[in-house]
Structure formats: structure tokens, C-alpha cells
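CTP synthase
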Amino acid sequence: MSMQYPNRTFAGISAAAILNLEYSWNLNRNGTIFLAAPSGNSKRVHGNIQRIVMRHPPICNAVHYRINKQFHTAIADPALISIGDIETTLPGNAVITNIMPVTSPARTLVDCGLRYPFVYAMALFDSALRQGIVTREQILEVCDSLQKDCGPVLRLLYYANPLNENGGESFCYGIILDEGFAVPELQHVFASPTGNIRVDFVWHTEDGRVIVLEFDGTDKYVNPTMTNKRSIRQVVHDERQREDYLKQAGVTTIIRTNYKEVEQRNPLVRKLFEANVPMARAHPYYERRTDATGRIW
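C-alpha cells:
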């Protein structure tokens, strides 16, 4: 579409995909392509194309390029028109594969933050901050320029953390917060006889407990680049030894979860309750209304 209509500017989740931000592909399930438009309405205009109306859309060029067999994404100033000018901003051995106009990273995040639930938008914000393509101040500037309630974006901005290493961890982090648990510390390091051990999430409670939550992706058991050619049995053995070292370092409880449990929510929430992870607020499921005498309704 970009090649056929080079003047169209991609926006929303379409711009996020072009900018190589991480998010759940469930957000693409209806196949909608979002475009920035200076006027009109925000309804579907043709088939799976939908406008996001903005009078003066902040535009940048998303440049996809290849170095050897590795693909990369860069953001180029829209003032750089020719490919030659853009090439001067890239590494010398870069081969440009395509250039597409998109809304700025800040505007893209604001549009996505207003459209999608907190737990799904978290990965977008985390990955943008992790890649260093946007600042919190730039996102706030976009919010200030809009005549909209940007409360959902401000909440995302408050909790977004680039220390989440991938979209799965961001999703898990978002569920933890959305369910009312205390904000965990991310990528905490414990010392062990074999070197430092870094964990995904940790809580240090007021009563002296140390609770660790590890988010496990299936890749750690089957992807050769992550298993370092170890067998599944060896990977499992190493994980058990890792847990032993963590307990020696003072960890009192270790919770393991995966994407399926996080997506279903209840399995993860049950594990967090069973481990007595601190809450930031009372959980609605456990609240009961009482009358003036204290009797439960």
C-alpha cells in the first residue's frame, strides 16, 4: 500500500508495526490498517482501512534496512527526501529495503494507548522506551496538544518500564498491575557461586520475605540460540540449580508462570495470592459489603 500510495501516512497499530514496536498480534486480529487523516471521521472508509483524524499529524519516515542478514529499523527526519540523504544517516554497509511515512513514535503511542487496554498497550510503551525512540516528555507533549482525556496514556506512562525485556514480560507486568498487586522490582540481581542471577520480577515485603516471579517462554527450552545446545533435561536441571542458589541468596518464594497463564489471568493471580504477594489495593474478588453491624450482605 505504501508503494502504491506513497503519500499516505500510517498511524496507530499499523505505525507501531512499521516502527517494530512489540505488542500482541491479537491487536491485528481484524486486519485493520490505520491511516492518519487531516479531516473526516474515524470510521472505516474502505474495507479494512480506518482513519485516525489529526489536523497536523507529526510525521517521520520509518526506514527498514538490512546489514548482512540482520534487519533493522531507523527513524529518519521527513525533511530528508532522497534515499541518498537517508543513507548518510545509516551505517555504511546498510542496504535500505523500504521507507514508509508514519506518525511519530510519541503520537503512535498516544493513539494506541487510547484505543487498547492497559495490559496490551504496555508492551508498546516499554519497547519504545527500551529502543530509545521516544521520551516521556514527547508523549506528554502530544497529550497536551489533544482535546481528549488522555488518562489511559498517563497511566501507561507512569508505569512503563524499559527494563521489561520483551513483550511477554510487559504483558505479565501489565496484568500484575491491573490486578492490583504492588509494583515489582524488575531485573533484580542476586549473587550466587556461579555469578550473578537476574530475575524478572521481585517483591521485598515489609515482613522480610523476598518473592521472585519468573516469566518463562517456551523458547528457553527449545530455541537453540537460548538453550546453548543443551538438552531439555539439562535446561531443567540448570533451572533447579538456579532456584537453589536463589534460595541460598535469601529468596523465600519462587513463582513460575508462562504466557498462557498470564493470558488467562486467573492461574497467575492464584499463584500471586498463594505466595501472598503484597497488594497495592484491595482486590474486588475478596471484598464483601457489610451493614452497620458488620454483617456481610
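The CA atoms of residues 287 and 293 lie 17 Å apart.
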